[in-house]
Amino acid sequence: MPTSVLVLGAGFGGLELSTRLAEELGDQVEVTLVDRSDAFVFGFSKLDVMFGTETVDAVRLRYADITTPHLRFRQETVTSIDPETRRVETDLDAYEADVLVVALGADYDLAATPGLVEAGNEFYSVAGAEAVRDILPTFRSGTVIVACAARRSSARRRRARPPCCWTTTCANEVFATTSGSGS
Ligand SMILES: Cc1cc2nc3c(=O)[nH]c(=O)nc-3n(C[C@H](O)[C@H](O)[C@H](O)COP(=O)(O)OP(=O)(O)OC[C@H]3O[C@@H](n4cnc5c(N)ncnc54)[C@H](O)[C@@H]3O)c2cc1C
User: Fold this and answer.
1) What is the pTM of this model?
2) What residues have CB less than 8 Å from 136, skipping those under 6 apart?
3) Which tens digits make up the pLDDT trace of 8-25?
4) Which atom of ligand 1 is nearest the CA belonging to 79?
5) Of 170, 51, 49, which Cα lies nearest the Cα of 119?
6) Distance 42 CA to ligand 1 centre (A)
7) Which of 84, 103, 141, 154, CA to CA, is 20 to 30 A from 63?
Protein backbone atom coordinates (compact mmCIF):
# COMPACT_ATOMS: atom_id res chain seq x y z
CA MET A 1 0.00 0.00 0.00
CA PRO A 2 1.41 3.42 -0.88
CA THR A 3 1.68 5.98 1.91
CA SER A 4 -0.98 8.65 1.55
CA VAL A 5 0.37 12.18 2.02
CA LEU A 6 -2.01 15.12 2.29
CA VAL A 7 -0.37 18.49 1.71
CA LEU A 8 -2.38 21.60 2.59
CA GLY A 9 -1.24 24.67 0.70
CA ALA A 10 0.43 24.75 -2.70
CA GLY A 11 2.76 27.67 -2.08
CA PHE A 12 6.53 27.45 -2.10
CA GLY A 13 6.68 24.85 0.68
CA GLY A 14 3.75 22.61 -0.25
CA LEU A 15 4.37 22.67 -3.98
CA GLU A 16 8.07 21.83 -3.68
CA LEU A 17 7.43 19.02 -1.20
CA SER A 18 4.58 17.48 -3.20
CA THR A 19 6.38 17.42 -6.53
CA ARG A 20 9.57 16.08 -4.95
CA LEU A 21 7.78 13.29 -3.09
CA ALA A 22 5.88 12.25 -6.20
CA GLU A 23 8.98 12.35 -8.41
CA GLU A 24 11.39 10.66 -6.03
CA LEU A 25 9.17 8.08 -4.31
CA GLY A 26 6.82 7.25 -7.19
CA ASP A 27 4.65 4.22 -6.40
CA GLN A 28 5.45 4.41 -2.70
CA VAL A 29 3.27 7.52 -2.23
CA GLU A 30 -0.08 8.96 -3.13
CA VAL A 31 0.17 12.71 -2.70
CA THR A 32 -2.91 14.93 -2.53
CA LEU A 33 -2.21 18.65 -2.75
CA VAL A 34 -4.96 21.09 -1.70
CA ASP A 35 -5.04 24.83 -2.35
CA ARG A 36 -7.83 27.37 -2.65
CA SER A 37 -6.21 28.85 -5.75
CA ASP A 38 -5.93 27.22 -9.15
CA ALA A 39 -2.45 28.55 -9.91
CA PHE A 40 0.88 29.46 -8.32
CA VAL A 41 2.43 32.90 -8.75
CA PHE A 42 6.09 33.39 -7.83
CA GLY A 43 6.65 36.30 -5.45
CA PHE A 44 9.02 38.05 -7.82
CA SER A 45 6.51 37.77 -10.69
CA LYS A 46 4.31 40.17 -8.76
CA LEU A 47 6.97 42.80 -9.41
CA ASP A 48 6.52 42.20 -13.15
CA VAL A 49 2.76 42.61 -12.71
CA MET A 50 3.24 45.75 -10.64
CA PHE A 51 5.48 47.36 -13.25
CA GLY A 52 3.19 46.27 -16.08
CA THR A 53 5.79 44.16 -17.89
CA GLU A 54 3.71 40.99 -17.53
CA THR A 55 0.02 40.23 -17.28
CA VAL A 56 -1.32 38.16 -14.40
CA ASP A 57 -2.28 35.41 -16.85
CA ALA A 58 1.30 35.22 -18.12
CA VAL A 59 2.78 34.61 -14.65
CA ARG A 60 0.20 32.11 -13.38
CA LEU A 61 1.48 28.52 -13.20
CA ARG A 62 -1.60 26.32 -13.25
CA TYR A 63 -1.70 23.51 -10.68
CA ALA A 64 -3.66 21.33 -13.10
CA ASP A 65 -0.46 21.04 -15.15
CA ILE A 66 1.52 19.35 -12.37
CA THR A 67 -0.83 16.40 -11.89
CA THR A 68 0.90 13.02 -12.27
CA PRO A 69 -0.17 9.44 -11.41
CA HIS A 70 1.28 9.98 -7.91
CA LEU A 71 0.17 13.57 -7.35
CA ARG A 72 -3.36 14.89 -7.59
CA PHE A 73 -4.37 18.50 -7.08
CA ARG A 74 -7.63 19.63 -5.50
CA GLN A 75 -8.77 23.24 -5.66
CA GLU A 76 -10.58 23.52 -2.33
CA THR A 77 -10.52 25.73 0.75
CA VAL A 78 -9.41 24.07 3.98
CA THR A 79 -11.96 24.73 6.72
CA SER A 80 -10.78 22.51 9.59
CA ILE A 81 -7.74 20.44 10.57
CA ASP A 82 -7.56 17.78 13.27
CA PRO A 83 -3.83 17.08 13.67
CA GLU A 84 -4.38 14.08 15.98
CA THR A 85 -6.55 12.09 13.60
CA ARG A 86 -5.01 13.78 10.54
CA ARG A 87 -8.51 14.51 9.34
CA VAL A 88 -9.09 17.57 7.20
CA GLU A 89 -12.30 19.16 5.98
CA THR A 90 -12.59 21.49 3.04
CA ASP A 91 -15.47 23.39 1.51
CA LEU A 92 -16.01 20.44 -0.84
CA ASP A 93 -14.67 17.26 0.75
CA ALA A 94 -13.03 15.52 3.72
CA TYR A 95 -9.68 13.70 3.84
CA GLU A 96 -7.65 11.42 6.09
CA ALA A 97 -4.04 10.59 5.39
CA ASP A 98 -1.04 8.67 6.75
CA VAL A 99 0.99 11.86 6.70
CA LEU A 100 -0.44 15.37 6.99
CA VAL A 101 1.57 18.43 6.00
CA VAL A 102 0.27 21.92 6.78
CA ALA A 103 1.88 24.50 4.51
CA LEU A 104 -0.80 27.18 4.47
CA GLY A 105 1.58 30.14 4.75
CA ALA A 106 0.67 33.31 6.61
CA ASP A 107 -2.15 35.79 6.19
CA TYR A 108 -1.27 39.43 5.75
CA ASP A 109 -2.37 41.67 8.59
CA LEU A 110 -2.42 45.02 6.81
CA ALA A 111 -4.43 46.66 9.61
CA ALA A 112 -1.51 46.06 12.00
CA THR A 113 0.39 48.88 10.30
CA PRO A 114 -1.39 52.19 11.03
CA GLY A 115 -2.48 53.95 7.86
CA LEU A 116 -1.66 51.14 5.48
CA VAL A 117 -5.25 50.07 4.84
CA GLU A 118 -6.49 53.64 4.47
CA ALA A 119 -3.71 55.12 2.36
CA GLY A 120 -1.22 52.43 1.42
CA ASN A 121 -0.64 49.77 -1.17
CA GLU A 122 1.16 46.45 -1.18
CA PHE A 123 2.53 44.17 -3.87
CA TYR A 124 2.65 40.90 -1.93
CA SER A 125 -0.70 39.78 -3.25
CA VAL A 126 -1.63 39.57 -6.92
CA ALA A 127 -4.55 41.92 -6.33
CA GLY A 128 -2.21 44.37 -4.57
CA ALA A 129 0.31 44.26 -7.42
CA GLU A 130 -2.47 44.91 -9.93
CA ALA A 131 -3.69 47.88 -7.88
CA VAL A 132 -0.19 49.44 -7.73
CA ARG A 133 0.21 48.83 -11.49
CA ASP A 134 -2.84 51.00 -12.08
CA ILE A 135 -1.68 53.73 -9.67
CA LEU A 136 1.93 54.12 -10.86
CA PRO A 137 1.13 55.70 -14.26
CA THR A 138 -0.99 58.35 -12.53
CA PHE A 139 1.71 59.32 -10.03
CA ARG A 140 3.44 62.49 -11.18
CA SER A 141 5.23 63.98 -8.17
CA GLY A 142 5.41 63.94 -4.38
CA THR A 143 6.95 61.81 -1.71
CA VAL A 144 6.81 58.04 -1.80
CA ILE A 145 7.50 55.86 1.21
CA VAL A 146 8.59 52.32 0.55
CA ALA A 147 8.20 50.47 3.83
CA CYS A 148 8.88 46.98 5.04
CA ALA A 149 6.12 46.49 7.58
CA ALA A 150 6.35 43.38 9.69
CA ARG A 151 4.71 42.52 12.97
CA ARG A 152 5.64 39.85 15.44
CA SER A 153 2.89 38.04 17.27
CA SER A 154 4.46 37.27 20.64
CA ALA A 155 5.10 39.97 23.22
CA ARG A 156 8.50 38.47 24.02
CA ARG A 157 9.57 38.66 20.39
CA ARG A 158 8.14 42.17 20.07
CA ARG A 159 10.33 43.32 22.96
CA ALA A 160 13.36 41.58 21.50
CA ARG A 161 13.03 43.08 18.03
CA PRO A 162 10.65 45.93 17.19
CA PRO A 163 8.83 46.25 13.83
CA CYS A 164 11.24 47.30 11.15
CA CYS A 165 11.59 50.33 8.90
CA TRP A 166 8.35 52.25 9.43
CA THR A 167 8.68 55.89 8.50
CA THR A 168 6.30 58.59 9.68
CA THR A 169 7.01 61.18 7.01
CA CYS A 170 3.89 62.48 5.23
CA ALA A 171 3.59 61.04 1.76
CA ASN A 172 1.31 61.16 -1.23
CA GLU A 173 1.58 57.41 -1.68
CA VAL A 174 2.78 54.62 0.55
CA PHE A 175 3.96 51.42 -1.03
CA ALA A 176 4.65 48.73 1.51
CA THR A 177 5.96 45.24 1.44
CA THR A 178 4.24 43.33 4.21
CA SER A 179 4.88 40.05 5.87
CA GLY A 180 2.28 38.03 7.76
CA SER A 181 1.83 38.25 11.49
CA GLY A 182 1.77 34.52 11.97
CA SER A 183 5.17 33.74 13.45
C1 LIG B 1 6.91 39.94 -3.99
C2 LIG B 1 7.49 38.83 -3.14
C3 LIG B 1 8.84 38.57 -3.17
C4 LIG B 1 9.40 37.59 -2.36
N5 LIG B 1 10.72 37.36 -2.44
C6 LIG B 1 11.28 36.40 -1.69
C7 LIG B 1 12.65 36.09 -1.80
O8 LIG B 1 13.38 36.68 -2.59
N9 LIG B 1 13.17 35.12 -1.00
C10 LIG B 1 12.40 34.42 -0.11
O11 LIG B 1 12.91 33.55 0.59
N12 LIG B 1 11.07 34.70 0.01
C13 LIG B 1 10.51 35.66 -0.75
N14 LIG B 1 9.18 35.93 -0.62
C15 LIG B 1 8.43 35.27 0.44
C16 LIG B 1 7.98 33.90 0.04
O17 LIG B 1 7.09 34.01 -1.05
C18 LIG B 1 7.27 33.27 1.25
O19 LIG B 1 8.17 33.17 2.30
C20 LIG B 1 6.79 31.87 0.89
O21 LIG B 1 5.79 32.01 -0.09
C22 LIG B 1 6.22 31.13 2.09
O23 LIG B 1 5.93 29.80 1.65
P24 LIG B 1 4.81 28.91 2.28
O25 LIG B 1 4.77 27.63 1.51
O26 LIG B 1 4.99 28.84 3.75
O27 LIG B 1 3.44 29.71 2.10
P28 LIG B 1 2.79 30.32 0.79
O29 LIG B 1 3.74 30.33 -0.36
O30 LIG B 1 2.16 31.59 1.21
O31 LIG B 1 1.67 29.23 0.43
C32 LIG B 1 0.52 29.08 1.20
C33 LIG B 1 -0.56 28.49 0.29
O34 LIG B 1 -1.65 28.10 1.09
C35 LIG B 1 -2.84 28.44 0.41
N36 LIG B 1 -3.88 28.58 1.43
C37 LIG B 1 -3.88 29.41 2.51
N38 LIG B 1 -4.98 29.22 3.24
C39 LIG B 1 -5.70 28.25 2.62
C40 LIG B 1 -6.92 27.57 2.92
N41 LIG B 1 -7.66 27.85 4.02
N42 LIG B 1 -7.34 26.60 2.06
C43 LIG B 1 -6.61 26.28 0.96
N44 LIG B 1 -5.46 26.88 0.64
C45 LIG B 1 -4.99 27.85 1.46
C46 LIG B 1 -2.54 29.74 -0.32
O47 LIG B 1 -3.40 29.90 -1.43
C48 LIG B 1 -1.08 29.50 -0.73
O49 LIG B 1 -0.98 28.95 -2.03
C50 LIG B 1 8.59 36.86 -1.47
C51 LIG B 1 7.20 37.09 -1.46
C52 LIG B 1 6.66 38.06 -2.30
C53 LIG B 1 5.18 38.28 -2.29
Assistant:
1) 0.81
2) 50, 51, 52
3) 999 999 999 999 999 999
4) 41
5) 170
6) 8
7) 84
